[in-house]
Amino acid sequence: MLWWEGGEIAITDTVKGEGDQILHLPASGLPLPTVGTVVSAEIDWDRRHKLMRMHTAMHLLCSLIKGAAVTGGSVGADRSRLDFDLPNPPPKESIEADLNALIEADHPVRIEWVDEAVLDTDPGLVRTMSVQPRAAPAVCV
After folding, report:
1. Cα(55)–Cα(111) distance, rounded to whole angstroms?
2. CA 50 to chain CA centroid, nearest Å
3. What pLDDT does residue 129 have?
4. 30 near 40, Cβ under 8 Å?
5. What distance in Å separates the CA atoms of residue 69 and residue 1, rounded to the nearest whole number?
6. Residue closest to 128 by CA, chosen among 43, 58, 54
7. What pLDDT tens digit does each residue of the chain (141 aa) get?
């Protein structure tokens, strides 16, 4: 949500714009604040927390599929997926059991900044086939 004196609007999505720009996409059809208006923002913490947990779960899943490149994926609040380049995928039941064991182990999670120079010198850190991530925080387990 964005609030300002005399108004408010729901934000339906947040996407990366050009460069370091972050775009907050408002609900359609509602009045926007005028340029220069001071606004306050608040995230939907419950949704954000679900996304954080799903993102971490995708890192755990990736740790179980050794050596396979990630070809795609999606992180959602209620459902997420990773696509791997695998000629012979492991049995779903095995992956599910191993993933549940990692979750039940309740390992500590920390955020660590990965410098671009490190990404360049250790290609094993990058599992995506088509895109090298910008230097950014990485969830480590």
Report:
1. 12
2. 11
3. 56
4. no
5. 37
6. 58
7. 999 999 999 998 888 899 989 998 999 888 899 999 999 999 999 999 999 999 999 999 999 998 888 989 999 999 999 999 898 989 999 999 999 999 999 999 988 888 888 888 886 777 775 554 444 444 433
- Residue 115 tokens read as 């410098």
In one-letter notation, the amino acid at residue 70 is V
To which residue do tokens 């010198």 refer?
A: 121
3-state SS track over the chain: CEEECCEEECEEEEEECCCCCEEEEECCCCCCCCCCCCCEECCCHHHHHHHHHHHHHHHHHHHHCCCCCEEEEECCCCCCEEEECCCCCCCHHHHHHHHHHHHHHCCCCEEEEECHHHHHHCHHHCCECCCCCCCEEEEEC
